[in-house]
Amino acid sequence: MTRLKHLVLAIGLLMLLLVATPGVAGAHAQLESSEPGQSAVLLVPPTRVVLHFGEPVEIDFGSLRVIGPGGARVDGGAAQHPDGDVHAVSASLPINLPDGTYIVAWRVVSADSHPVHGAYIFSVGTAKGAARADAIAVSIANQKGDTSVAVVYWVVRTVAFLGLLVLVGLAVLVVSLWKAGGRTRRVARVLWWSWWTVLAATVLSVIVQGAYGSALPLADAYRPSLISAVLHSRFGEVALFRLVLLAGMAGVLRLVTRHEDSRTGRWIRWEVPVVVVLGLCLLATPGLAGHAATGSNPALGLVLDLAHLAAASAWVGGLVLLATFLMPKAPDSAWPPDPLALTLRVSAVAFWAVVAVVATGVVQSIRQVGSWNALFHTSYGRTLVIKVSLVIALVAVGALSRRLVRRHAATDPAKVDGAKFPRRRLRRTVLVELGIALMVVGVTGVLVNDAPARQAVAQPFSYTFTTLGVQVNTIIDPALAGRTNQVHVYVLGSQGTPKAVPELDLSVSLPSQSIGPLTIPLVVSGPGHYAADRFVLPVAGNWILKYTVRTDAIDEQVTRTVLPVR
Predict the structure, then answer these.
(1) Is the whole model's pTM more than 0.90, yes or no?
(2) Which distant-in-sequence residues (6+ apart) come within 8 Å of 193 by Cβ?
Protein backbone atom coordinates (compact mmCIF):
# COMPACT_ATOMS: atom_id res chain seq x y z
CA MET A 1 0.00 0.00 0.00
CA THR A 2 3.04 2.29 0.23
CA ARG A 3 3.03 2.98 -3.51
CA LEU A 4 -0.71 3.68 -3.39
CA LYS A 5 -0.19 6.22 -0.61
CA HIS A 6 2.58 7.89 -2.58
CA LEU A 7 0.41 7.96 -5.71
CA VAL A 8 -2.57 9.49 -3.88
CA LEU A 9 -0.24 12.09 -2.33
CA ALA A 10 1.12 12.84 -5.80
CA ILE A 11 -2.41 13.35 -7.12
CA GLY A 12 -3.11 15.80 -4.31
CA LEU A 13 0.08 17.76 -4.94
CA LEU A 14 -0.54 17.87 -8.66
CA MET A 15 -4.09 19.10 -8.09
CA LEU A 16 -2.62 22.02 -6.14
CA LEU A 17 -0.79 22.98 -9.32
CA LEU A 18 -4.19 23.60 -10.84
CA VAL A 19 -4.32 26.92 -9.05
CA ALA A 20 -0.64 27.58 -8.47
CA THR A 21 0.58 27.35 -12.05
CA PRO A 22 -0.51 29.59 -14.93
CA GLY A 23 -1.11 27.98 -18.30
CA VAL A 24 -2.46 28.55 -21.77
CA ALA A 25 -5.78 26.94 -22.50
CA GLY A 26 -6.81 25.21 -25.65
CA ALA A 27 -10.49 25.92 -26.17
CA HIS A 28 -13.49 26.33 -28.36
CA ALA A 29 -13.08 29.41 -30.54
CA GLN A 30 -13.96 32.57 -28.61
CA LEU A 31 -15.12 35.81 -30.21
CA GLU A 32 -12.51 38.41 -29.28
CA SER A 33 -13.72 41.46 -31.18
CA SER A 34 -16.10 42.52 -33.91
CA GLU A 35 -16.59 45.25 -36.46
CA PRO A 36 -18.98 46.94 -35.72
CA GLY A 37 -18.66 46.46 -31.97
CA GLN A 38 -21.34 45.06 -29.72
CA SER A 39 -24.10 47.61 -28.98
CA ALA A 40 -22.25 50.24 -31.02
CA VAL A 41 -24.27 53.12 -32.50
CA LEU A 42 -22.73 54.21 -35.81
CA LEU A 43 -23.27 57.48 -37.60
CA VAL A 44 -21.82 56.06 -40.85
CA PRO A 45 -23.27 52.74 -42.11
CA PRO A 46 -20.71 49.89 -42.27
CA THR A 47 -20.00 48.04 -45.52
CA ARG A 48 -19.27 44.70 -43.88
CA VAL A 49 -19.33 42.80 -40.60
CA VAL A 50 -16.09 41.18 -39.40
CA LEU A 51 -15.76 38.81 -36.44
CA HIS A 52 -12.32 38.08 -34.97
CA PHE A 53 -11.81 34.82 -33.05
CA GLY A 54 -9.02 33.65 -30.77
CA GLU A 55 -8.20 30.64 -32.94
CA PRO A 56 -8.80 29.45 -36.52
CA VAL A 57 -12.43 28.77 -37.42
CA GLU A 58 -14.06 26.93 -40.30
CA ILE A 59 -17.04 28.22 -42.28
CA ASP A 60 -17.64 25.26 -44.62
CA PHE A 61 -20.93 24.52 -42.91
CA GLY A 62 -21.20 27.58 -40.68
CA SER A 63 -23.02 30.86 -41.20
CA LEU A 64 -22.89 34.60 -40.59
CA ARG A 65 -26.21 36.44 -40.82
CA VAL A 66 -27.06 40.10 -40.42
CA ILE A 67 -30.75 40.70 -39.74
CA GLY A 68 -32.19 44.15 -40.38
CA PRO A 69 -34.81 46.15 -38.42
CA GLY A 70 -37.60 44.60 -40.50
CA GLY A 71 -36.52 41.02 -39.72
CA ALA A 72 -35.02 40.24 -43.16
CA ARG A 73 -31.41 39.33 -43.88
CA VAL A 74 -29.35 42.15 -45.30
CA ASP A 75 -25.93 40.50 -45.66
CA GLY A 76 -24.46 39.26 -48.93
CA GLY A 77 -25.18 35.63 -47.99
CA ALA A 78 -21.67 34.17 -48.28
CA ALA A 79 -19.37 34.21 -45.26
CA GLN A 80 -15.64 34.31 -45.99
CA HIS A 81 -12.24 34.70 -44.36
CA PRO A 82 -11.24 38.34 -44.98
CA ASP A 83 -7.80 38.62 -46.60
CA GLY A 84 -7.29 34.90 -45.99
CA ASP A 85 -7.29 35.33 -42.20
CA VAL A 86 -8.65 32.03 -40.82
CA HIS A 87 -9.12 33.68 -37.40
CA ALA A 88 -11.79 36.00 -38.84
CA VAL A 89 -15.12 35.69 -40.63
CA SER A 90 -16.79 38.46 -42.61
CA ALA A 91 -19.95 39.18 -44.59
CA SER A 92 -20.58 42.09 -46.93
CA LEU A 93 -23.39 44.59 -46.38
CA PRO A 94 -25.25 46.77 -48.90
CA ILE A 95 -24.23 50.39 -49.29
CA ASN A 96 -26.14 52.96 -47.19
CA LEU A 97 -27.90 50.73 -44.70
CA PRO A 98 -31.08 52.42 -43.40
CA ASP A 99 -31.13 53.64 -39.82
CA GLY A 100 -32.10 51.13 -37.17
CA THR A 101 -30.79 48.25 -35.07
CA TYR A 102 -29.25 45.16 -36.66
CA ILE A 103 -28.66 41.67 -35.30
CA VAL A 104 -25.46 39.79 -36.15
CA ALA A 105 -25.88 36.02 -35.68
CA TRP A 106 -22.96 33.68 -36.29
CA ARG A 107 -22.17 29.99 -36.12
CA VAL A 108 -18.70 28.63 -36.93
CA VAL A 109 -16.72 25.46 -36.23
CA SER A 110 -13.62 25.94 -34.08
CA ALA A 111 -10.27 24.22 -34.58
CA ASP A 112 -11.25 21.55 -32.03
CA SER A 113 -14.20 20.52 -34.30
CA HIS A 114 -16.90 21.94 -32.02
CA PRO A 115 -19.48 24.47 -33.21
CA VAL A 116 -19.66 27.82 -31.45
CA HIS A 117 -22.35 30.42 -31.99
CA GLY A 118 -23.63 33.72 -30.71
CA ALA A 119 -25.38 36.97 -31.60
CA TYR A 120 -25.13 40.66 -30.81
CA ILE A 121 -26.58 43.97 -32.01
CA PHE A 122 -25.34 47.24 -33.47
CA SER A 123 -27.24 50.31 -34.60
CA VAL A 124 -26.97 52.80 -37.45
CA GLY A 125 -28.10 56.39 -36.85
CA THR A 126 -30.52 55.47 -34.08
CA ALA A 127 -30.79 52.69 -31.51
CA LYS A 128 -34.57 52.71 -31.62
CA GLY A 129 -35.77 49.14 -31.17
CA ALA A 130 -32.49 48.11 -29.55
CA ALA A 131 -34.19 46.53 -26.54
CA ARG A 132 -36.32 44.24 -28.72
CA ALA A 133 -33.38 43.40 -31.01
CA ASP A 134 -31.16 42.64 -28.03
CA ALA A 135 -33.79 40.24 -26.64
CA ILE A 136 -33.87 38.46 -30.01
CA ALA A 137 -30.06 38.31 -30.10
CA VAL A 138 -29.98 36.79 -26.62
CA SER A 139 -32.57 34.22 -27.70
CA ILE A 140 -30.49 33.31 -30.77
CA ALA A 141 -27.30 33.05 -28.71
CA ASN A 142 -29.04 30.75 -26.22
CA GLN A 143 -30.44 28.42 -28.86
CA LYS A 144 -29.12 24.88 -28.64
CA GLY A 145 -28.90 22.28 -31.36
CA ASP A 146 -31.05 19.17 -31.67
CA THR A 147 -30.80 17.17 -28.42
CA SER A 148 -30.88 13.85 -30.25
CA VAL A 149 -27.90 14.94 -32.38
CA ALA A 150 -25.94 15.92 -29.25
CA VAL A 151 -26.70 12.56 -27.60
CA VAL A 152 -25.72 10.57 -30.71
CA TYR A 153 -22.57 12.67 -31.08
CA TRP A 154 -21.58 11.94 -27.47
CA VAL A 155 -22.27 8.21 -27.87
CA VAL A 156 -20.25 7.99 -31.09
CA ARG A 157 -17.26 9.83 -29.61
CA THR A 158 -17.37 7.79 -26.40
CA VAL A 159 -17.50 4.52 -28.33
CA ALA A 160 -14.63 5.67 -30.56
CA PHE A 161 -12.53 6.57 -27.48
CA LEU A 162 -13.23 3.22 -25.85
CA GLY A 163 -12.54 1.27 -29.04
CA LEU A 164 -9.22 3.04 -29.57
CA LEU A 165 -8.07 2.43 -26.00
CA VAL A 166 -8.89 -1.29 -26.14
CA LEU A 167 -7.56 -1.86 -29.68
CA VAL A 168 -4.21 -0.14 -29.20
CA GLY A 169 -3.60 -1.15 -25.60
CA LEU A 170 -4.50 -4.81 -26.08
CA ALA A 171 -2.58 -5.13 -29.37
CA VAL A 172 0.60 -3.63 -27.91
CA LEU A 173 0.47 -5.72 -24.74
CA VAL A 174 -0.21 -8.94 -26.63
CA VAL A 175 2.74 -8.58 -29.00
CA SER A 176 5.05 -7.43 -26.22
CA LEU A 177 3.99 -9.55 -23.21
CA TRP A 178 2.11 -12.61 -24.52
CA LYS A 179 2.71 -13.30 -28.21
CA ALA A 180 0.76 -16.55 -28.19
CA GLY A 181 -2.23 -14.72 -26.72
CA GLY A 182 -3.17 -13.23 -30.09
CA ARG A 183 -3.95 -16.73 -31.35
CA THR A 184 -6.41 -17.44 -28.55
CA ARG A 185 -10.07 -17.15 -29.49
CA ARG A 186 -10.98 -14.61 -26.83
CA VAL A 187 -8.11 -12.20 -27.42
CA ALA A 188 -8.60 -12.38 -31.19
CA ARG A 189 -12.31 -11.64 -30.84
CA VAL A 190 -11.71 -8.63 -28.61
CA LEU A 191 -9.07 -7.26 -30.99
CA TRP A 192 -11.31 -7.56 -34.05
CA TRP A 193 -14.42 -6.30 -32.23
CA SER A 194 -12.52 -3.21 -31.08
CA TRP A 195 -11.21 -2.68 -34.65
CA TRP A 196 -14.73 -2.83 -36.12
CA THR A 197 -15.99 -0.58 -33.32
CA VAL A 198 -13.46 2.15 -34.14
CA LEU A 199 -14.20 1.79 -37.86
CA ALA A 200 -17.96 2.12 -37.40
CA ALA A 201 -17.64 4.99 -34.90
CA THR A 202 -15.31 6.89 -37.25
CA VAL A 203 -17.72 6.60 -40.20
CA LEU A 204 -20.68 7.58 -38.03
CA SER A 205 -18.79 10.54 -36.58
CA VAL A 206 -18.33 11.98 -40.09
CA ILE A 207 -22.06 11.61 -40.73
CA VAL A 208 -23.13 13.13 -37.40
CA GLN A 209 -20.55 15.96 -37.42
CA GLY A 210 -22.33 17.81 -40.22
CA ALA A 211 -25.64 17.96 -38.37
CA TYR A 212 -23.87 18.75 -35.09
CA GLY A 213 -21.86 21.60 -36.57
CA SER A 214 -24.79 23.06 -38.53
CA ALA A 215 -27.41 22.71 -35.76
CA LEU A 216 -29.56 20.57 -38.06
CA PRO A 217 -31.82 17.66 -37.06
CA LEU A 218 -30.52 14.10 -37.22
CA ALA A 219 -32.58 13.39 -40.33
CA ASP A 220 -30.39 15.83 -42.31
CA ALA A 221 -27.12 14.15 -41.27
CA TYR A 222 -27.07 11.93 -44.37
CA ARG A 223 -27.21 14.78 -46.88
CA PRO A 224 -24.34 14.26 -49.38
CA SER A 225 -23.52 17.97 -49.46
CA LEU A 226 -23.18 18.04 -45.67
CA ILE A 227 -20.96 14.94 -45.58
CA SER A 228 -18.82 16.44 -48.36
CA ALA A 229 -18.41 19.64 -46.32
CA VAL A 230 -17.31 17.61 -43.28
CA LEU A 231 -14.74 15.67 -45.33
CA HIS A 232 -13.21 18.98 -46.44
CA SER A 233 -12.89 20.19 -42.84
CA ARG A 234 -10.14 19.44 -40.33
CA PHE A 235 -12.39 16.90 -38.60
CA GLY A 236 -13.03 15.05 -41.86
CA GLU A 237 -9.36 14.98 -42.84
CA VAL A 238 -8.45 13.48 -39.46
CA ALA A 239 -11.24 10.89 -39.85
CA LEU A 240 -9.89 9.87 -43.26
CA PHE A 241 -6.39 9.60 -41.78
CA ARG A 242 -7.75 7.32 -39.05
CA LEU A 243 -9.42 5.08 -41.65
CA VAL A 244 -6.10 4.70 -43.47
CA LEU A 245 -4.42 3.75 -40.18
CA LEU A 246 -7.18 1.24 -39.46
CA ALA A 247 -6.53 -0.40 -42.82
CA GLY A 248 -2.88 -0.82 -41.82
CA MET A 249 -3.89 -2.12 -38.39
CA ALA A 250 -6.16 -4.70 -40.03
CA GLY A 251 -3.17 -6.21 -41.83
CA VAL A 252 -1.25 -6.35 -38.56
CA LEU A 253 -4.13 -8.00 -36.71
CA ARG A 254 -4.37 -10.71 -39.37
CA LEU A 255 -0.79 -11.70 -38.55
CA VAL A 256 -1.16 -11.33 -34.78
CA THR A 257 -4.37 -13.40 -34.56
CA ARG A 258 -3.51 -16.24 -36.95
CA HIS A 259 -4.22 -19.65 -35.44
CA GLU A 260 -1.02 -21.11 -36.87
CA ASP A 261 2.30 -19.48 -36.01
CA SER A 262 3.52 -18.78 -39.53
CA ARG A 263 5.18 -15.49 -38.77
CA THR A 264 8.61 -15.05 -40.30
CA GLY A 265 11.66 -14.00 -38.36
CA ARG A 266 11.65 -10.62 -40.05
CA TRP A 267 8.03 -9.92 -38.97
CA ILE A 268 8.69 -11.11 -35.41
CA ARG A 269 11.56 -8.62 -35.23
CA TRP A 270 9.39 -5.73 -36.45
CA GLU A 271 5.95 -6.56 -35.03
CA VAL A 272 6.32 -4.65 -31.75
CA PRO A 273 7.56 -1.36 -33.29
CA VAL A 274 5.00 -1.60 -36.12
CA VAL A 275 2.11 -2.11 -33.68
CA VAL A 276 3.37 0.65 -31.39
CA VAL A 277 3.75 3.18 -34.21
CA LEU A 278 0.33 2.40 -35.70
CA GLY A 279 -1.20 2.53 -32.24
CA LEU A 280 0.33 5.90 -31.39
CA CYS A 281 -0.83 7.33 -34.71
CA LEU A 282 -4.36 6.11 -34.02
CA LEU A 283 -4.30 7.57 -30.51
CA ALA A 284 -3.12 10.91 -31.93
CA THR A 285 -6.25 11.33 -34.06
CA PRO A 286 -8.60 12.51 -31.26
CA GLY A 287 -6.16 15.28 -30.33
CA LEU A 288 -5.61 16.35 -33.93
CA ALA A 289 -9.31 17.22 -34.18
CA GLY A 290 -9.87 18.19 -30.55
CA HIS A 291 -8.86 20.54 -27.73
CA ALA A 292 -5.24 19.39 -27.79
CA ALA A 293 -4.61 20.92 -31.22
CA THR A 294 -5.75 24.40 -30.14
CA GLY A 295 -4.28 27.17 -28.03
CA SER A 296 -0.99 29.04 -28.36
CA ASN A 297 1.12 25.86 -28.03
CA PRO A 298 -0.67 23.08 -29.94
CA ALA A 299 2.50 20.96 -30.20
CA LEU A 300 2.67 20.71 -26.39
CA GLY A 301 -1.04 19.98 -26.22
CA LEU A 302 -0.76 17.17 -28.78
CA VAL A 303 2.21 15.57 -27.03
CA LEU A 304 0.45 15.68 -23.66
CA ASP A 305 -2.76 14.32 -25.13
CA LEU A 306 -0.95 11.48 -26.89
CA ALA A 307 0.98 10.56 -23.74
CA HIS A 308 -2.27 10.64 -21.73
CA LEU A 309 -4.15 8.42 -24.16
CA ALA A 310 -1.21 6.03 -24.60
CA ALA A 311 -0.98 5.52 -20.84
CA ALA A 312 -4.75 5.12 -20.53
CA SER A 313 -4.68 2.63 -23.40
CA ALA A 314 -1.99 0.55 -21.70
CA TRP A 315 -4.03 0.58 -18.49
CA VAL A 316 -7.35 -0.38 -20.12
CA GLY A 317 -5.68 -2.84 -22.50
CA GLY A 318 -4.06 -4.60 -19.57
CA LEU A 319 -7.40 -4.96 -17.80
CA VAL A 320 -9.00 -6.40 -20.92
CA LEU A 321 -6.09 -8.82 -21.41
CA LEU A 322 -6.52 -10.11 -17.86
CA ALA A 323 -10.26 -10.40 -18.37
CA THR A 324 -9.83 -12.68 -21.40
CA PHE A 325 -8.61 -15.56 -19.23
CA LEU A 326 -10.18 -14.59 -15.89
CA MET A 327 -13.76 -14.74 -17.15
CA PRO A 328 -15.78 -17.91 -16.36
CA LYS A 329 -15.62 -20.87 -18.76
CA ALA A 330 -12.36 -19.77 -20.29
CA PRO A 331 -11.07 -22.70 -22.39
CA ASP A 332 -7.64 -24.14 -21.68
CA SER A 333 -6.36 -22.57 -24.89
CA ALA A 334 -7.12 -19.12 -23.44
CA TRP A 335 -5.09 -19.75 -20.29
CA PRO A 336 -1.49 -18.45 -20.39
CA PRO A 337 1.26 -20.93 -19.48
CA ASP A 338 2.25 -18.78 -16.48
CA PRO A 339 -0.78 -16.66 -15.45
CA LEU A 340 0.94 -15.22 -12.39
CA ALA A 341 3.98 -14.00 -14.32
CA LEU A 342 1.77 -12.43 -17.00
CA THR A 343 -0.43 -10.77 -14.37
CA LEU A 344 2.60 -9.35 -12.59
CA ARG A 345 3.94 -7.91 -15.86
CA VAL A 346 0.56 -6.38 -16.68
CA SER A 347 0.36 -4.99 -13.14
CA ALA A 348 3.76 -3.32 -13.51
CA VAL A 349 2.70 -1.74 -16.80
CA ALA A 350 -0.56 -0.59 -15.23
CA PHE A 351 1.19 1.09 -12.32
CA TRP A 352 3.42 3.25 -14.50
CA ALA A 353 0.49 3.89 -16.83
CA VAL A 354 -1.45 5.28 -13.88
CA VAL A 355 1.45 7.59 -13.01
CA ALA A 356 1.53 8.87 -16.60
CA VAL A 357 -2.26 9.26 -16.78
CA VAL A 358 -2.34 11.33 -13.59
CA ALA A 359 0.67 13.49 -14.48
CA THR A 360 -0.42 14.30 -18.04
CA GLY A 361 -4.05 14.67 -17.00
CA VAL A 362 -3.22 17.27 -14.37
CA VAL A 363 -0.99 19.25 -16.75
CA GLN A 364 -3.79 19.27 -19.32
CA SER A 365 -6.22 20.35 -16.60
CA ILE A 366 -3.96 23.28 -15.78
CA ARG A 367 -4.17 24.33 -19.44
CA GLN A 368 -7.94 23.91 -19.60
CA VAL A 369 -9.00 25.10 -16.10
CA GLY A 370 -6.36 27.23 -14.38
CA SER A 371 -8.12 28.15 -11.12
CA TRP A 372 -10.26 26.79 -8.29
CA ASN A 373 -13.04 29.16 -9.30
CA ALA A 374 -13.13 27.73 -12.81
CA LEU A 375 -12.87 24.18 -11.46
CA PHE A 376 -15.96 24.41 -9.24
CA HIS A 377 -18.08 27.04 -11.02
CA THR A 378 -18.14 25.78 -14.61
CA SER A 379 -19.70 22.74 -16.25
CA TYR A 380 -16.31 21.65 -17.56
CA GLY A 381 -14.70 22.01 -14.13
CA ARG A 382 -17.42 20.07 -12.31
CA THR A 383 -17.27 17.29 -14.89
CA LEU A 384 -13.50 17.18 -14.48
CA VAL A 385 -13.94 16.78 -10.71
CA ILE A 386 -16.16 13.76 -11.38
CA LYS A 387 -13.54 12.29 -13.71
CA VAL A 388 -10.75 12.82 -11.16
CA SER A 389 -12.88 11.15 -8.45
CA LEU A 390 -13.47 8.15 -10.71
CA VAL A 391 -9.76 7.90 -11.51
CA ILE A 392 -8.90 7.95 -7.79
CA ALA A 393 -11.43 5.13 -7.25
CA LEU A 394 -9.89 3.25 -10.16
CA VAL A 395 -6.42 3.64 -8.65
CA ALA A 396 -7.67 2.30 -5.32
CA VAL A 397 -9.31 -0.78 -6.85
CA GLY A 398 -6.24 -1.36 -9.00
CA ALA A 399 -4.08 -1.27 -5.88
CA LEU A 400 -6.26 -4.02 -4.37
CA SER A 401 -5.73 -6.18 -7.46
CA ARG A 402 -2.00 -5.53 -7.40
CA ARG A 403 -1.77 -6.34 -3.70
CA LEU A 404 -3.72 -9.58 -4.19
CA VAL A 405 -1.43 -10.78 -6.98
CA ARG A 406 1.80 -9.81 -5.24
CA ARG A 407 0.67 -11.47 -1.98
CA HIS A 408 -0.11 -14.66 -3.88
CA ALA A 409 3.27 -14.54 -5.64
CA ALA A 410 5.04 -14.08 -2.32
CA THR A 411 3.67 -17.34 -0.89
CA ASP A 412 5.63 -19.79 -3.01
CA PRO A 413 6.15 -18.83 -6.64
CA ALA A 414 7.47 -22.28 -7.53
CA LYS A 415 4.13 -23.90 -6.66
CA VAL A 416 1.89 -21.38 -8.40
CA ASP A 417 -0.05 -22.79 -11.33
CA GLY A 418 -3.33 -22.15 -13.10
CA ALA A 419 -5.37 -24.16 -10.61
CA LYS A 420 -4.05 -22.26 -7.59
CA PHE A 421 -4.21 -18.86 -9.21
CA PRO A 422 -6.67 -16.52 -7.30
CA ARG A 423 -8.88 -16.32 -10.36
CA ARG A 424 -12.23 -15.61 -8.72
CA ARG A 425 -11.04 -12.83 -6.40
CA LEU A 426 -8.94 -11.16 -9.09
CA ARG A 427 -11.83 -11.42 -11.54
CA ARG A 428 -14.05 -9.37 -9.23
CA THR A 429 -11.55 -6.53 -8.88
CA VAL A 430 -10.76 -6.52 -12.62
CA LEU A 431 -14.47 -6.31 -13.47
CA VAL A 432 -14.88 -3.39 -11.06
CA GLU A 433 -11.87 -1.67 -12.65
CA LEU A 434 -13.31 -2.18 -16.13
CA GLY A 435 -16.66 -0.77 -15.01
CA ILE A 436 -15.07 2.35 -13.52
CA ALA A 437 -12.84 2.74 -16.61
CA LEU A 438 -15.96 2.67 -18.79
CA MET A 439 -17.46 5.48 -16.69
CA VAL A 440 -14.23 7.48 -17.02
CA VAL A 441 -14.39 7.17 -20.81
CA GLY A 442 -18.04 8.27 -20.75
CA VAL A 443 -17.19 11.34 -18.67
CA THR A 444 -14.29 12.08 -21.03
CA GLY A 445 -16.80 12.09 -23.89
CA VAL A 446 -18.71 14.82 -22.05
CA LEU A 447 -15.54 16.84 -21.43
CA VAL A 448 -14.48 16.95 -25.07
CA ASN A 449 -17.90 18.39 -25.99
CA ASP A 450 -17.76 21.11 -23.34
CA ALA A 451 -16.08 24.50 -23.51
CA PRO A 452 -12.93 24.44 -21.32
CA ALA A 453 -13.40 26.07 -17.93
CA ARG A 454 -10.77 28.75 -18.51
CA GLN A 455 -12.80 30.03 -21.45
CA ALA A 456 -16.17 29.67 -19.73
CA VAL A 457 -15.19 32.02 -16.89
CA ALA A 458 -13.77 34.60 -19.31
CA GLN A 459 -17.13 35.75 -20.69
CA PRO A 460 -17.71 39.52 -20.53
CA PHE A 461 -20.13 41.14 -18.08
CA SER A 462 -23.06 43.09 -19.52
CA TYR A 463 -25.80 45.09 -17.82
CA THR A 464 -28.57 47.40 -19.08
CA PHE A 465 -30.92 49.68 -17.14
CA THR A 466 -33.10 52.73 -17.72
CA THR A 467 -33.08 55.85 -15.56
CA LEU A 468 -34.15 59.49 -15.96
CA GLY A 469 -35.34 58.84 -19.52
CA VAL A 470 -32.04 57.37 -20.78
CA GLN A 471 -30.89 53.78 -21.34
CA VAL A 472 -27.46 52.81 -20.03
CA ASN A 473 -25.71 49.76 -21.54
CA THR A 474 -22.50 48.42 -19.97
CA ILE A 475 -19.94 45.85 -21.11
CA ILE A 476 -16.91 44.88 -18.97
CA ASP A 477 -14.57 42.48 -20.72
CA PRO A 478 -13.33 39.99 -19.54
CA ALA A 479 -14.36 40.79 -15.91
CA LEU A 480 -11.36 38.91 -14.52
CA ALA A 481 -9.31 39.74 -11.43
CA GLY A 482 -5.71 40.82 -11.92
CA ARG A 483 -6.23 41.37 -15.63
CA THR A 484 -6.67 44.52 -17.71
CA ASN A 485 -10.40 45.00 -18.25
CA GLN A 486 -12.10 47.12 -20.88
CA VAL A 487 -15.18 49.05 -19.77
CA HIS A 488 -17.67 50.42 -22.30
CA VAL A 489 -20.81 52.36 -21.33
CA TYR A 490 -23.34 53.47 -23.97
CA VAL A 491 -26.03 56.05 -23.11
CA LEU A 492 -29.08 56.25 -25.39
CA GLY A 493 -31.87 58.80 -25.36
CA SER A 494 -35.64 58.17 -25.55
CA GLN A 495 -35.47 57.90 -29.37
CA GLY A 496 -32.66 55.36 -29.22
CA THR A 497 -29.98 57.79 -30.37
CA PRO A 498 -26.66 58.32 -28.54
CA LYS A 499 -26.99 60.92 -25.83
CA ALA A 500 -24.26 62.80 -24.01
CA VAL A 501 -25.02 63.43 -20.32
CA PRO A 502 -23.47 66.04 -18.03
CA GLU A 503 -22.20 63.42 -15.60
CA LEU A 504 -21.61 59.66 -15.67
CA ASP A 505 -19.52 58.24 -12.84
CA LEU A 506 -18.74 54.59 -12.28
CA SER A 507 -17.17 52.97 -9.21
CA VAL A 508 -16.77 49.49 -7.72
CA SER A 509 -16.41 48.15 -4.20
CA LEU A 510 -16.06 44.75 -2.54
CA PRO A 511 -17.78 44.94 0.87
CA SER A 512 -16.78 41.38 1.84
CA GLN A 513 -13.12 42.43 1.90
CA SER A 514 -13.64 46.14 2.71
CA ILE A 515 -12.20 47.24 -0.64
CA GLY A 516 -13.28 50.44 -2.34
CA PRO A 517 -14.97 52.32 -3.63
CA LEU A 518 -12.57 52.37 -6.61
CA THR A 519 -13.34 54.90 -9.33
CA ILE A 520 -13.41 53.64 -12.92
CA PRO A 521 -11.82 56.46 -14.99
CA LEU A 522 -14.28 56.84 -17.88
CA VAL A 523 -13.41 59.04 -20.84
CA VAL A 524 -15.63 60.13 -23.70
CA SER A 525 -14.99 57.92 -26.77
CA GLY A 526 -17.83 59.14 -28.95
CA PRO A 527 -21.44 60.38 -28.81
CA GLY A 528 -22.96 58.71 -25.74
CA HIS A 529 -19.98 56.33 -25.48
CA TYR A 530 -17.82 56.31 -22.34
CA ALA A 531 -14.87 53.93 -21.94
CA ALA A 532 -11.97 52.89 -19.72
CA ASP A 533 -9.33 50.77 -21.45
CA ARG A 534 -7.01 49.68 -18.66
CA PHE A 535 -8.96 49.09 -15.46
CA VAL A 536 -7.72 46.33 -13.14
CA LEU A 537 -9.88 44.62 -10.51
CA PRO A 538 -7.46 43.37 -7.83
CA VAL A 539 -9.31 40.29 -6.50
CA ALA A 540 -12.18 38.00 -7.45
CA GLY A 541 -15.58 38.24 -5.80
CA ASN A 542 -19.04 39.77 -6.13
CA TRP A 543 -18.24 43.45 -6.50
CA ILE A 544 -20.85 46.21 -6.27
CA LEU A 545 -20.95 48.32 -9.42
CA LYS A 546 -22.29 51.83 -8.71
CA TYR A 547 -23.55 54.22 -11.42
CA THR A 548 -24.13 57.94 -10.87
CA VAL A 549 -26.06 59.41 -13.80
CA ARG A 550 -26.94 63.12 -14.05
CA THR A 551 -28.98 64.23 -17.07
CA ASP A 552 -29.27 67.97 -16.21
CA ALA A 553 -28.39 70.46 -13.49
CA ILE A 554 -30.89 68.89 -11.04
CA ASP A 555 -31.78 65.29 -11.95
CA GLU A 556 -29.32 62.72 -10.70
CA GLN A 557 -29.82 59.01 -10.02
CA VAL A 558 -27.67 56.33 -8.39
CA THR A 559 -27.99 52.69 -9.56
CA ARG A 560 -26.18 49.64 -8.20
CA THR A 561 -25.74 46.09 -9.47
CA VAL A 562 -23.59 43.05 -8.70
CA LEU A 563 -20.47 42.57 -10.82
CA PRO A 564 -19.19 38.97 -10.57
CA VAL A 565 -15.41 38.99 -10.99
CA ARG A 566 -13.66 35.67 -11.49
Answers:
(1) no
(2) none
